[in-house]
Write a structure and sequence with these properties.
It is built from one helix and 17 strands. By secondary structure, it is mostly beta strands. It folds into two domains: about 30 residues; about 210 residues, Immunoglobulin-like. The strands form four sheets. The chain has a five-stranded mixed beta sheet with strand order 5-11-10-7-8, with no helix packed on it. Strands 1, 13, 16 and 17 form a four-stranded mixed beta sheet that branches. A hairpin with a 3-residue loop joins strand 14 and strand 15. The longest helix has 27 residues.
Length: about 250
């Protein structure tokens, strides 16, 4: 009887040891970044400023969607000081490779009297579809330095207009001449390797050919930073950035 109990204890202890070893191995082995992928996080250094409420009283048809008003998207700091709305892209390293422009349009909407998304990425030659989801007049005014400027009105809800950029330009500012608080930015690049940081500051760029690259991050208030990464057929790379307010 004692031998059977002892054997049971032995088996039980062995099972616990095995389970603990498996759990420890799972915790200690983070998944590798997939081949051809650059992942990372952009953080804000220092104490995050309080979000600013955008004053929209000039147009009674601009009704804030959120209780307490619409918050400015110029500097959005999320959990863990993650920085949202930063444009991240491959600045150098692709050499003479060319990439066809997608036929699917990038959508820039005007909703709640603000541009949405606040920051977009788009390829040279790719269609840009600008929509008006508000029941008020908007004026879409792109103010590039390299591409051709365009400026048109959308007086009715549901209107859609299509445009395209024919040159690389990081970044192209957008504004609305009717509502002075409205602004957005478009990063125009010649390839599909770009991203806009999420609310937690994270980003992911997929599908890169093996090679060494310069990655740049742009933020409308905090400027730019670059770093170099190498990806190969077996693993990707990580690129983290910490940005702070200009002195």
């Amino acid at each position: 009887m004692k031998i059977r109990q002892l054997g049971g204890v032995t088996v039980g202890v062995a099972a616990m040891v095995l389970a603990t070893a498996v759990a420890t191995a799972q915790r200690g082995s983070a998944p590798a970044t997939p081949a051809g992928t650059v992942v990372g996080k952009i953080t804000y250094e220092g104490r995050a400023p309080r979000p600013r409420v955008v004053r929209m009283g000039a147009d009674p048809l601009c009704m804030p969607e959120a209780k307490g008003g619409t918050l400015s998207e110029v500097l959005v700091v999320g959990p863990g000081n993650g920085l949202q709305n930063a444009f991240v892209y491959v600045k150098d390293g692709l050499g003479s490779r060319t990439f066809p422009a997608p036929k699917t349009p990038v959508v820039l909407d005007q909703k709640g009297c603000k541009y949405s998304p606040h920051v977009i990425g788009i390829q040279v030659g790719q269609p840009l579809e600008v929509r008006n989801s508000d029941g008020t007049l908007h004026n879409v005014h792109a103010v590039p330095k390299i591409n051709k400027e365009f400026n048109f009105g959308q007086p009715s809800k549901g209107m859609k207009s299509s445009r395209a950029f024919d040159k690389v330009e990081v970044m192209v500012p957008f504004r609305c001449d009717v509502h002075g608080w409205m602004n957005a930015y478009a990063g125009v690049v010649a390839h599909p390797f770009f991203a806009v940081s999420k609310p937690d500051g994270s980003f992911e760029i997929k599908g890169l050919p093996p090679g060494s690259y310069t990655i740049e991050v742009w933020h409308e208030q905090l400027g730019t930073q670059t770093t170099k990464v190498t990806v190969d057929a077996k693993a990707g790379a990580t690129a983290n950035f910490a940005m702070k307010a200009k002195a």
